[in-house]
Write a structure and sequence with these properties.
The protein is α+β, with helices and mostly antiparallel strands. It contains 5 helices and 6 strands, in the order ββββββααααα. The longest helix has 29 residues, at 101-129. GO terms for molecular function: ATP binding; ATP-dependent protein folding chaperone.
Length: 226
């Protein structure tokens, strides 16, 4: 069982594909695909999709996906005779996966750093847009936050193939602007949670380096490694 979040604002559906074990999609074998549609408009990362995998004794794989807010569901059954690979094909794919393991690891870390920056920036953007938060920020602080977030997202949009180190550096730069302002706001309210309607927003994914952000606006790694 795994949980995923949408990667775009007002995303109406969630495409799902199921492949083999290699990290690069192009090196895997397609097992099946289905779409979960009818997701209501919502900010990026708000709809939650729970995916369940069930493999029975006969080698039949049942995969289901449910959007938790609406209960929308879809599923697929993959039998062991659909798209079955030959023994030679399996051996070749295993050998290729071992051969390129280090390159796969470096690419995975680069994508994780990219997604970490993107998730953090959108998480902060959603937080600053929350009326419970924006109304308690000084105008200069709100302007500084929005400028830093917009600059980070603009840079990210223009640098899709940057290095892991560049993504990590950009996230640390953004954190150095956002974290002190948010901390100051919470402290001015007597610690945060008690001074805001509904309590303090989830900040668990808003710091601690360039790994993928957690919390309400985090999610699966939104870019596939291809």
């Amino acid at each position: 069982r795994a949980n995923f979040l949408t990667y775009g604002a007002n995303q109406p559906g969630w495409p799902s594909r199921f492949r083999g074990r290699a990290r690069d999609e192009k090196d895997c074998h397609l097992l099946g695909t289905f779409d979960l549609s009818g997701i209501p408009p919502a900010p990026r990362g708000v709809p939650q999709i729970e995916v369940t995998f069930d493999l029975d004794a006969n080698g039949i794989l049942n995969v289901s996906a449910e959007e938790k807010g609406t209960g929308k569901r879809n599923h697929i059954t993959i039998t062991n005779d659909k798209g079955r690979l030959s023994k030679d094909e399996i051996e070749r794919m295993v050998n290729d996966a071992s051969k390129y393991e280090q390159a796969d690891k470096m690419q995975r870390e680069r994508v994780e750093a990219k997604n970490g920056l993107e998730n953090y920036a959108y998480s902060m953007k959603n937080t600053v847009s929350d009326t419970n938060v924006s109304g308690k920020l000084e105008e200069s602080d709100r302007s500084a936050l929005n400028s830093a977030i917009d600059a980070a997202l603009e840079w990210l949009n223009s640098n899709q193939e940057a290095s892991k180190e560049e993504y990590e550096h950009r996230q640390k730069e953004l954190e150095s602007t956002c974290n002190p302002i948010m901390t100051k706001m919470y402290q001015s309210m007597g610690g945060g949670a008690g001074g805001m309607p509904g309590g303090m927003p989830d900040m668990s994914g808003m710091g601690g380096g360039a790994g993928p952000a957690a919390g309400a606006s985090s999610g699966p790694k939104v870019e596939e490694v291809d």
